[in-house]
Design brief:
alpha/beta; nine-stranded mixed β-sheet; four-stranded antiparallel β-sheet
Length: 316
């Protein structure tokens, strides 16, 4: 594999963000494909049936009973297996499984997945709810929307209603309707950069980060507006940039004040780090340190997660 240099500015920013040890391990993660992971779709099969069918060296994830990792060389075998094409397993990075787990949707609730395509997290939410209740899955990009609809059908998520809409408007159109909201926001995808795939990072610059931040700020406000008082939302990205993470949460705290509060996450793994206290001379609200920065491992991409509780109405 031919390896290319990551953007110098990206690397220097990463070095400022992380401890020396975390920086070294994170930098190394961009050079390697890492393991694969899949989740058994409980709507269509069981762990015992799937593992017998696949016959691969699957190692269970200790923190999520339906998920397994396998070495990267089995990628093609898994991707073309009937278990995947017929919807009994979903290939998904473990980092992407964290957001639905932390959201913790319950049967018979009404849940909003605000930027939902390609639908992996939506499917996991539907499985956690045992197809009981309602999930509204919103996506604004037409091609991604129809791919999501196809995934939902293949994997048997029958209680999901899909909407081809701009998520930035949803909260104001259906205010305080949902028990839980997931916003896995469009981002610069920094944790998915690979030195052997220059296309993965050639688009990156600070201006792009600022552009995507403007969209994220509008999306998080829409998500909070759509949430019932007492409800919970999770904000997540697969980016390292504080502009896309802590600064977006800070924007929401400033806009909504005491109506919302950040909560600690029960799940704790060795590669979790707290949210930043400051960046570029901007001091963040102390509660933002309860957010999680997920460092990459052999099994997991980097990620950012923040759990937010709505305590009061924000209706206009």
């Amino acid at each position: 594999m031919t390896q290319h240099s990551l953007p110098e500015l990206f690397v220097s920013r990463l070095q400022r963000l992380l401890s020396p040890q975390d920086f070294t391990s994170t930098l190394k993660s961009f050079d390697e494909p890492g393991d694969m992971a899949f989740r058994v779709n409980a709507l269509k099969s069981t762990k015992v049936e799937v593992l017998a069918e696949l016959n691969v060296p699957a190692i269970p994830l200790t923190w999520f009973e339906h998920a397994f990792t396998i070495p990267a060389e089995y990628r093609e075998q898994l991707s073309f297996s009937p278990a995947f094409t017929e919807g009994r397993i979903y290939i998904q990075n473990p980092a992407s499984m964290l957001a639905p787990l932390i959201l913790n949707p319950q049967p018979n609730e009404e849940v909003l997945d605000l930027t939902a395509a390609p639908g992996g997290k939506t499917l996991m939410i539907a499985a956690m709810m045992n197809n009981q209740g309602r999930v509204a899955a919103v996506e604004s990009v037409k091609g991604r929307f129809f791919r999501m609809k196809n995934n939902l059908e293949t994997f048997g998520a029958t209680m999901v209603d899909t909407y081809l809409k701009d998520g930035r408007q949803v909260g104001w159109k259906v205010p305080e309707r949902f028990d839980r909201v997931l916003l896995d926001a469009p981002c610069s995808s920094e944790s998915r950069f690979k030195t052997y795939q220059p296309d993965s990072f050639q688009h990156w610059n600070e201006r792009k980060v600022k552009e995507v931040q403007r969209k994220q700020k509008k999306l998080i406000c829409s998500a909070i507006a759509a949430l019932k008082p007492g409800g919970v939302m999770v904000y997540s990205t697969c980016s390292y940039s504080p502009e896309e993470n802590e600064q977006v949460v800070q924007h929401a705290l400033k806009k909504f004040g005491d109506a919302i509060a950040i909560e600690t996450v029960d799940l704790q793994l060795e590669n979790f780090r707290p949210g930043l206290a400051e960046w570029n001379n901007r001091i963040f609200d102390n509660s933002i340190q309860q957010a999680l920065r997920v460092l990459p491992t052999q099994q997991m991409h980097g990620f950012f997660l923040c759990k937010i509780r709505k305590h009061q109405s924000t209706a206009r």
